[in-house]
Amino acid sequence: MKNLSYFEKRDLLNMQRVGKYLEGLPEYCFDFFTGIELNTSSLTRVNYAMDLAIFYDYISKYIFKKDKSKVMLKDLDTLEAKHIESFLSYLSFYELNDKTFKNTENGKARKLASVRSFFKYLFNHDLISKNVVSKVPTPKLHTKEIVRLESDEIEKMLDAVNDPTSFTERQKNYNKNTKVRDNAMVTLFLGTGIRVSELVGLNVEDFDFSQNAFKVTRKGGNQTILYYPNEVKYAVEEWLSIRKTLPIKEDEHALFLSLQNRRICTRSVENVVKKFAKESTPLKKISPHKLRSTFGTNLYRETNDIYIVADVLGHKDVNTTKKHYAAISEDMRKNVAKKVKISSF
């Protein structure tokens, strides 16, 4: 593990998580994950494994009434569309390992997509004679309002990082030790639009301050060079000046560190963003992804080019960009309103 990069360690841990979710499932389930390995990320496979575990827990208990390890391929051939629909209904509220879970339409849609991919694999490999899941439509998804920060809210959030007025004395003392790091992280999100996993995986040597450039590892492991404004440069350089004074192990290359001087984890970064966003915009639930949306929206407003936004954000499909940035259509509607005149006066 020592010689592995952050992303290699992450993928190894995800492989272990997949194995844990697949415990007790029939052998042919493992073949499915072998088959999709080259075309999916490790995190996608974790989600598939988790969803299949839930699916097999349901069909073994309520349809076949036998241990899930004994659910054979010939059993899957007896399933009908109504069974898949009842599974989706079951997902509204269900129990697993003595815990109660619930799913909205989005959660149900994701689990159906996982099961659909699984059945497609089995059908294409002539392991089952029909693909019953393909007959079940995806649950209707309700469009969520796009949450992002406006210009004044960005200022408030950055002010909150440096001087949190609502914090207790204990929180303020804690913040003194982390505010330079936290400011660098928040500024990097707002100035580049990178994902939280991309930020966590950054190393010190990934930055070239003479070019205002850094190397980022995207989804799927592809690396690309991104550029940043001077605000990001100053914030990161200030953090690096603090980082140099810390008792860090020689083999620790992570840019952002926890108070234990190890690579910060995704959950900690999410908590940092949530903490300062709560003070600056209490009515909005702001996450690192919302800061990414803020950057994408601002970039579109400056360039009016959806393809540039998609490229910088690392979206393979421009439709993904269109779907996530409501300001695109909002700005268009505003421009239309300016062009239409009721009278000639």
What is Rg?
Answer: 24 Å
Assembly type of the chains comes to: single chain
CATH domain class of the largest domain: Mainly Alpha
Q: Please give the domain count.
A: 2
- Quickly give the CATH architecture of the largest domain: Orthogonal Bundle
SSE pattern, N- to C-terminal? HHHHHEEHHHHEEEHHHHHH
Q: How many strand units? A: 5
CATH superfamily of the largest domain: Intergrase catalytic core
Tally of helical segments: 15
The CATH topology label of the largest domain is hpI Integrase, Chain A
Largest sheet composition: 3 strands, antiparallel
Structural class by sheet pairing and helices:
mainly alpha
Distance between the termini: 74 Å
Q: Could you tell me the strand content as a percent range?
A: 5-15%
Overall outline: globular
- Into which percent range does the helicity of residues fall? 55-70%
Average pLDDT: 90
Main-sheet strand order equals 3-4-5
State the low-pLDDT regions, or none: none
Mind explaining what this structure looks like?
This protein has 345 residues and is mainly alpha-helical. The chain folds into 2 domains: 6-135, Orthogonal Bundle (DNA polymerase, domain 1); 151-287, Intergrase catalytic core (hpI Integrase, Chain A), CATH 1.10.443. It has 15 helices and 5 strands. It has helices at residues 6-21, 27-36, 42-63, 73-76, 81-90, 105-124, 151-162, 169-192, 196-200, 230-243, 266-280, 288-303, 306-313, 318-324, 327-339, and strands spanning 93-96, 99-102, 207-208, 213-217, 223-227. It has a 3-stranded antiparallel β-sheet with strand order 3-4-5, with no helix packed on it.
